[in-house]
Amino acid sequence: PSLLPVAFYLACFGGGTILDGWKRPGGSVERLTTDDLKRCMDGREQLAEMATTLWMKTFCPLAIETCESVVECEEGLAAIAHDAHKITERNGPRFLLSWDPFIKDKMDDPDWEFTVCKLCRSEVLDRNDALRNTTWHQLPEIFRISVPNGWDTYP
Questions:
Q1: What's the whole-model pTM score?
Q2: 118-122 mean pLDDT
Q3: Which residues have CB under 8 Å from 89's CB, separation 6+?
Q4: Average of per-residue pLDDT values in the chain
Q5: φ, ψ for residue 21 (rounded to 5)?
Q6: CA nearest to 139, candidates 59, 44, 53
Q7: Please, what's the b/e burial string for 54-71 (b: 16 or more CB within 10 A of its CB; e: otherwise)?
Q8: Which listed residue, of 28, 38, 80, 83, carries a Cα 20 to 30 Å from 90's Cα?
């Protein structure tokens, strides 16, 4: 049962192919029940709504009191947020994947026209991890499934 939240999360990005089922080596086909298909569709819709909120909360102005360059950081974060939003629109709400590589690549690119101070960079990365972690723990609720306590911890 501890794999169910992840399985539903992955299945909801299958588009129409989830109706085809999964072909076993012996040739038989395993299909989701109507209730499970509804869970996937409803869950994807809820995840899409959550994706925008997560994106906004990750990249909103940080207002860190010790920011080294407030205006530059706000401009840099706005530029990253714009590019991240385009990716989200193209790829769907796969926001449980880390934005860290994307954020780091942007900020480390010597040709990038913006700057973000080390404090704001660290805050954005930490904020993204925390928001994704919160969403991860909500997967059973999103897909309306029961899982045992501790489903989301490593052994």
A1: 0.78
A2: 88
A3: none
A4: 85
A5: 80, -170
A6: 44
A7: bbeebbeebeeeebeeee
A8: 38
